[in-house]
C-alpha cells in the first residue's frame, strides 16, 4: 500500500512539474533544436569556421498536413538542413568554454572555484542582453516577421565556437600573435555566418514593395548592428 501511494504521489508530482514547465517552455518546439546528427554537427562546425565557402544559406521547408488549417510549410530540423539553427552546439560549446577558462587559469596558478560561476554568469548575461536587445529593436522597427527566441539564442550561442578554438590553441600554442590572428579570422567568419543566417529573420522574402522601400534600410542597420555586437562580445569573451 505504501509503495502504491508513493508511486501515485510521484506520478502526480511529475505531472505538476511537466505542466508548469510546458507553461513557460514549449517542449516540442525545444526538441526541434536538438534534433541533430553527428554529420550535422561536423558540417555545422565547418560552416562556422569556413563560412565564406558556404554557397547556399536558404533554409529548407517541409509541407505538413494540418487538419485545422490545411497544408502548412515548416522548416526542416537541423538533422535534415545544415542551415537550420540548433541548440546542441551552443550549449556544448558554452559548457566546454567555461571548463576551458578554468583550465587556462589553472595553468597560470590563478584558478579559483568561483571563477567558473562568474564566467558562466557573465556569458549567460551577454546572451540574454543580445537576445532581448534584438527583440526590442524588432518591436521598435515593427518587424512583423516572427523571430523565434530559440533561433536568436542559437545564433548568439554559436560565438562560443570561435572563442573555444582560440582557448584550445592558446593552451597548446601560446603565442599571442598567432592566437589573436586566428581569433580575428574566426570572428570575421562567425560574423559573416551570422549575417547570412539572421538575414531571413530581418529581411524575409516578400512581395510587399512598400515595406521594403520604407523599412529595408532600417532593418539592414539592425542586422549589421546585431552582427557587430556579436563580434565585439566574441572578442570580449
From TrEMBL:
Classification via Pfam families: YIF1
The protein's role, per its UniProt record: Has a role in transport between endoplasmic reticulum and Golgi.
Transmembrane domains' residue ranges: 87-105, 117-142, 162-188, 220-236
Keyword Protein transport found: yes
UniProt subcellular location: Endoplasmic reticulum membrane; Golgi apparatus membrane
Family, similarity comment: Belongs to the YIF1 family.
Keyword Transmembrane helix attributed: yes
InterPro entries for this protein: Yif1_fam
Classification lineage: Eukaryota, Fungi, Fungi incertae sedis, Chytridiomycota, Chytridiomycota incertae sedis
GO-annotated cellular components: COPII-coated ER to Golgi transport vesicle; endoplasmic reticulum membrane; endoplasmic reticulum-Golgi intermediate compartment; Golgi membrane
Keywords associated with the record: Endoplasmic reticulum, Golgi apparatus, Membrane, Protein transport, Transmembrane, Transmembrane helix, Transport
UniProt name for this protein: Protein YIF1
Topology term for the membrane: Multi-pass membrane protein
GO BP terms: endoplasmic reticulum to Golgi vesicle-mediated transport; protein transport
Amino acid at each position: 500500500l505504501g509503495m502504491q501511494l508513493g508511486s501515485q504521489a510521484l506520478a502526480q508530482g511529475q505531472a505538476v512539474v511537466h505542466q508548469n514547465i510546458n507553461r513557460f517552455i514549449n517542449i516540442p518546439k525545444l526538441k526541434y533544436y536538438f534534433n541533430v546528427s553527428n554529420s550535422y554537427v561536423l558540417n555545422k562546425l565547418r560552416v562556422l569556421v569556413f563560412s565564406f565557402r558556404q554557397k547556399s544559406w536558404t533554409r529548407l521547408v517541409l509541407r505538413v498536413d494540418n487538419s485545422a488549417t490545411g497544408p502548412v510549410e515548416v522548416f526542416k530540423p537541423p538533422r535534415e538542413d545544415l542551415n537550420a539553427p540548433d541548440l546542441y552546439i551552443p550549449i556544448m560549446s558554452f559548457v566546454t568554454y567555461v571548463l576551458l577558462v578554468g583550465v587556462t587559469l589553472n595553468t597560470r596558478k590563478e584558478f579559483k572555484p568561483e571563477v567558473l560561476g562568474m564566467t558562466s554568469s557573465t556569458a549567460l548575461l551577454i546572451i540574454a542582453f543580445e537576445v532581448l536587445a534584438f527583440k526590442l529593436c524588432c518591436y521598435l522597427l515593427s518587424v512583423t516577421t516572427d523571430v523565434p527566441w530559440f533561433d536568436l539564442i542559437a545564433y548568439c550561442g554559436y560565438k562560443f565556437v570561435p572563442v573555444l578554438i582560440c582557448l584550445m590553441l592558446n593552451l597548446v600554442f601560446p603565442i599571442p600573435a598567432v592566437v589573436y590572428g586566428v581569433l580575428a579570422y574566426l570572428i570575421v567568419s562567425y560574423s559573416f555566418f551570422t549575417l547570412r543566417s539572421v538575414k531571413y529573420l530581418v529581411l524575409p522574402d516578400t512581395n510587399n514593395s512598400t515595406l521594403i522601400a520604407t523599412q529595408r534600410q532600417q532593418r539592414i542597420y539592425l542586422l549589421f548592428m546585431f552582427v557587430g555586437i556579436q563580434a565585439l562580445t566574441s572578442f570580449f569573451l
